[in-house]
């Protein structure tokens, strides 16, 4: 069961948790589905769903009893998507990179304290399930998250690490982790294998704007068993070059 963070409203957080239960594959859910995915009791789920339904954020099929996202969510998503300029600059590069490699290529941003993929071009059928559009992932694991985290403040990084440790009952060695982030900053590329997802390999590069601020990261994901060392070296250069191209399109002078 979710508990409210300091300075937040628990009922609002719980309602948002219900919205996060929907995915591209699970676009219709029953009350039992919500209960299982949030660990909230049935009465609370029913009350929250009714509130969301009144505001039109979800709808209920009266015949099947299943819930789905409401039409206002389309408009909200459009407002967000049309105001992320980096997506417009990045998409042609993502499309070309996926075509050239046959792999899934994505564009990631930091949202609150999570990594979110806001654009992607699917490649291999085997890997696309590991890269979900709009889903919040931890920044701590995987090349895509570490690329973004490497350019954050030390306080932000430490907060992310502590949160991961608390949620996963795992202690992360600070010296080796910060050394890895230092290497990512200097090389402007990150490579991970069997890190966030076993059997998956990810390569990622940062994207900057004209003010030299990190705005996103571009990543390529594939199956570890298919990516030979030669391919990983080749894709590392392609990803770094993709980050450079998108950054320059955003007005950044790549060094």
Automatic annotation (TrEMBL):
Keywords annotated in UniProt: DNA-binding, Transcription, Transcription regulation
Domain IclR-ED: 72-252
Record domain HTH iclR-type: where: 9-71
A Pfam entry, by short name: HTH_IclR
Keyword match Magnesium: no
Keyword match DNA-binding: yes
Highest taxon of source: Bacteria
Gene Ontology MF term list: DNA binding; DNA-binding transcription factor activity
Protein name, per record: DNA-binding transcriptional regulator, IclR family
